[in-house]
Design a protein that fits this description.
mainly alpha
Length: about 180
């Protein structure tokens, strides 16, 4: 995190992320912290999916895409702090997942590390393609929230669970195998 403090490029995204989290909390006062964090995770996944899809179709500039990745890296670092102190059963897996995402993003957003990937002219395309798999996070999180609320017998739970499986195959299995 200290890599970017020279020009406040971390402070503004961090404050934005915390502001959105606070907004979600204020509008869902009966939800646990875990459910609020899961809703924020879904929003992050949606924004990341859209930004990477737009980048792959040349609909946004590389600077806009890098800004989105900066927000993503800061979100992941912030979430790692929360996870570290939480009692989640899959804490280690999520910490590793977030660490890998940040590791993948850093050479793109932090110029002194760009030399690590500059020999690969398609690194940005590979990163953007890989982040398309985040679309599976949304129905997975919806399923988890419904499960946490004991609503496994609802139509919404069944649709979210089926959507998770249907999206998981092309985006997590096939795409990441290809990459």
């Amino acid at each position: 995190i200290y890599l970017f403090l020279d020009n406040y490029s971390v402070a503004i995204p961090y404050l934005c992320i915390k502001g959105v989290e606070r907004y979600i909390k204020l509008n869902n006062i009966n939800d646990s912290t875990e459910i609020i964090k899961t809703k924020l995770s879904s929003l992050h996944a949606l924004i990341l999916f859209i930004a990477n899809m737009l980048f792959l179709y040349d609909s946004i500039t590389i600077e806009s895409w890098k800004l989105c990745l900066l927000y993503s890296a800061i979100y992941n670092a912030s979430d790692m702090v929360y996870l570290y102190y939480s009692d989640m059963k899959i804490k280690a897996q999520l910490l590793f997942h977030h660490f890998m995402l940040i590791t993948c993003i850093l050479p793109v957003i932090y110029e002194p590390l760009y030399y690590l990937v500059e020999t690969s002219p398609i690194y940005n395309t590979l990163v953007a393609s890989n982040f398309l798999c985040e679309i599976t996070t949304i129905p997975l999180n919806i399923s988890w929230i419904l499960y946490a609320r004991n609503k496994q017998d609802t139509f919404e739970f069944k649709i979210a669970s089926l959507s998770t499986i249907l999206l998981y195959i092309p985006f997590r299995v096939m795409l990441t195998t290809y990459l």
